[in-house]
Amino acid sequence: MEDTSRVLIIREDTFLKGEIRNGGRIEVFGYVEGDIAGDLLVVQPGGRCFGKVKVDAADVRGQLQGDIHVRQLINIRGTGEVTGNVKYGKLSMELGGVLSAEMRNIPPSISGDLDLSVDKGKAVRITPQDLSAIDPDDVAELLTFTVSQVRNGFVTLATDPARPVEVFTQADLEQGTVLFRHDGTDEPRASFAVVVADRAGATSGAAQTVNVAVRSHA
């Protein structure tokens, strides 16, 4: 019987950066970046795992990339893709599965709750908890957001808060210099959309909307 106390599940809407040590069964539906050590790593379809991995066995149905050491069996399913410096005891690979030593550029993803609140006519700082870029192979300065579809306000930087901007970086977010300024209209909501691109030009895909609730004080 499996020891459920040593089962770690990374859900679809979860982005985890850091270390996983002494894991039992590690099951990835979402995004993991960092050092991973455990008994069994399962990367589910749509799951993405990047970094230094050292496990007894692996079952890959999603994407696994990095410095990979599987002591026993690595099973790459038809939807699985494993790239990087890969060492293993035994290999099983279904038709459609990919095993490659060529490291590929990973497109960035957008994370965060994508929700803000601002006082009418005022500005609010956009934090990495509100909006962030996830990319294992590019530093924050090279992850660039493009703003579009702005409604009832504008995105700006703290260095020049009266001037709207159409681009900013993940580094700007981490430094706390990105703001949304409301335009003072009476509508209870504002919004803007963003796409993030990396150094190679790969993007997060379709623009995602950041919703802004407007607080009106009598």
Automatic annotation (TrEMBL):
Matching InterPro entries, A to Z? BacA/B, CSPG_rpt
Query: Domain of life of the organism in this record?
Result: Bacteria
What's the family?
Belongs to the bactofilin family.
From the Swiss-Prot or TrEMBL record, give the protein name.
Polymer-forming cytoskeletal protein
Q: Which organism is it from?
A: Hyphomicrobium album
* Taxonomic path: Bacteria, Pseudomonadati, Pseudomonadota, Alphaproteobacteria, Hyphomicrobiales
